Amino acid sequence: MKRIEIAGGGLAGLSLGIALRKRGVPVLVREAGSYPRHKVCGEFINGVTLETLENLGIAGIFQKALRHSRTRWWVGDREVLDAEMARPALGMSRWEMDVALRDLFLAEGGELQVKDRVTREAGAGLVWTAGRRLEKGSDWLGLKGHFEKVPLKGGLEMHIGDGGYVGLTPITEDGGRVNVCGLFKRRNLRGENLTVSYLRACGLSELADRLEEGELDEASVTGVSGFQLGAQRVEDGLCSLGDAERMIPPFTGNGMSMAFESAECALDQLVQYAGGGEWNDCRSEIHDALERRFKKRVTFALGLHRFLTTRAG
Questions:
Q1: For residue 43, which of 159, 206, 150, 172 has the smallest C-alpha distance?
Q2: Confidence of residue 309 (pLDDT cuts 50, 70, 90)
Q3: Burial per residue of 255-273, b for 16 or more beta-carbon CB atoms within 10 angstroms, e otherwise
Q4: From residue 52, how far is each of 38, 48, 251, 263 by CA, in Å?
Q5: C-alpha closest to that of 105 among 35, 4, 9, 17
Q6: Residue 164, beta-bridge partner list
Q7: Does the reported pTM lie above 0.70?
Q8: What's the sign of the alpha-carbon dihedral 151, 155, 161, 164?
Q9: CA–CA dist 313, 308 (Å, integer)
Q10: What whole-number distance in Å separates Cα of residue 19 and Cα of residue 55?
Q11: Angle at 125 between CA 124 and CA 126, to 5 degrees
């Protein structure tokens, strides 16, 4: 069989690599970084089905994940929603999740090269899952950090302010460690705890006070800028998945789910290609599958994102 090369060892790349190995396809994953690592994300998976996780062969990784069943939303300091979720969200830190996926990929006989940066260009059998490309004109900044001794108000918390929003997710069973991840319109702010500074600038003073009373794990602090939401710019002929293909606004909590779903969209076509199929046909079918699965979802979320980040919204 022909080998599949995957550029990017995140959720989409590793889950796809595992699924392909379980079907006997030779796979090389090339990751620019190393493991374990912190990533800017909400650290819960909202929306993915058990069927998708089982089809990819990764359901066992989440057997011990936290199950979040409620979500609570605030606008400023005023609570506007307390609701039961249609399907429990799976809570797990990326520090643990990426390592578990890496170990499973290696156990399935996959080949992994770390600290190996791949040239961004199309090629037969190359799948690009290495995240978004730099967009220097972006106005958005993503910030994430782990806090301890922060009292939670129950469920997954979402706080919407003037020009930004932030989510709180417990990542330990007792709620003692909390992931705080936000998306903000860029401002000229400085300080040791940049997340708290942005919260105050957005009018989220009560949440900022809560975080200041807690303890920030400095090693967990990460940030990301220079990106655009929605469809990503992709070179002609490049087969891309996950955030490299399109990014849903983070308030949905659906980005990690889409990483796994996009791997599932590409799975059957890549197996057929590895068995002797044509690459152009494979890539075209993957693109069409991604459009069918995500276009309406992302378009609707982008509309809500634009509305929620205004005073009127």
A1: 172
A2: confident
A3: bbbbbbbbbbbbbbbbbeb
A4: 24, 7, 22, 9
A5: 17
A6: 161, 184
A7: yes
A8: positive
A9: 4
A10: 7
A11: 95
Whole-angstrom Cα distance, residue 40 to residue 158? 16
Name every residue whose Cβ is closer than 8 Å to that of residue 261 and which is 6 or more positions away in sequence. Answer: 48, 52, 293, 294
Distance in angstroms (rounded) separating the CA atoms of residues 151 and 170 = 10
Per-residue pLDDT tens digits for 176-232: 899 999 999 999 887 778 999 999 999 999 999 999 999 999 999 999 998 889 999
Q: Band the pLDDT of 136: cuts 50, 70, 90.
A: confident
Q: What are 289's two structure tokens?
A: 């599958």
Amino acid at 13: G
User: Token digits for 150?
Assistant: 């922060």
Distance CA 26, CA 18 (A): 10
Total residues found in the chain within this entry:
313
What are 274-304's pLDDT values in tens digits? Answer: 999 999 999 999 999 999 999 999 999 999 9
Place of tokens 């190995």: 21
